[in-house]
């Protein structure tokens, strides 16, 4: 019987894989990454044939390591899959929330504007309308707007009414003192005038001038026919003795002036002349005056009420 040589024993020993290699193949197959048994055996024989066998000793076969599955072949946990299915829709729902869902001014979950509307509705009162109200006709032709001109006219009318009321009160007061009839009652009718070298009268104006005569009449009507005098240059026209200064003197003291004539008033002319209103008859006034046309004497005339630019009501 022939004894097998070293080469025969090596082929017989490695003709089939060992049980350890078979177990490694089975475990790799269970992990989804198993390789064919023939390929492992071929690789094992090729590896063993690379190195020559020395002195008939067969080197031990190293156990094959278990093949590890790659990242692509790893199985995902069911819990991870369920969490992903829940989290992804939640992200889309959160991004789709409306902007008005955030209401910092809300009260108990209700928006402030909505709460105010609900409160106004709850506090509203019921209105009962009569059944015949729907048949009433609305008249719009009686309404009108007041213009600026109408307002100004109304103010002017009120001013005229106030002036007329003051004039009526003044007339009543002067009548009580007894306005005298027409006539030259000037007490200094023969005193020298300024051009004659005369001086000032007790009233502060030059003798026999228009201003001195009218000042005398105002004192007379006020009940001061002799001194002490009530109305003088210093109390009526301290800014100047000329007739042109009288209207300004009345304005500075707030005394009444008007374009309506009144008995006992001063007829003021803008050509530096004043006269005394003796009577009023319709649109005509009778004037008493001194120094008309430079005569320095007593004079009367009747003129239209509109010919007098301004009437200075008696001071007081």
Task: Provide structural commentary.
- Pfam families: CHAP.
- Keywords: Membrane, Transmembrane, Transmembrane helix.
- There is one protein chain.
- Helix content is 37%, strand content 10%.
- It is of the alpha+beta class and 316 residues long.
- Among the domains are: 7-51, no CATH class; 149-312, endopeptidase domain like (from Nostoc punctiforme) (endopeptidase fold (from Nostoc punctiforme)), CATH 3.90.1720.
- A six-stranded antiparallel beta sheet has the order 1-6-2-3-4-5.
- Strand 4 (284-290) and strand 5 form a beta hairpin.
- It is rod-shaped, with a radius of gyration of 66 Å.
Question: What are its keywords?
Answer:
6 strands; endopeptidase fold (from Nostoc punctiforme); alpha+beta; single chain; 9 helices; disordered N terminus; 6-stranded antiparallel beta sheet; 316 residues
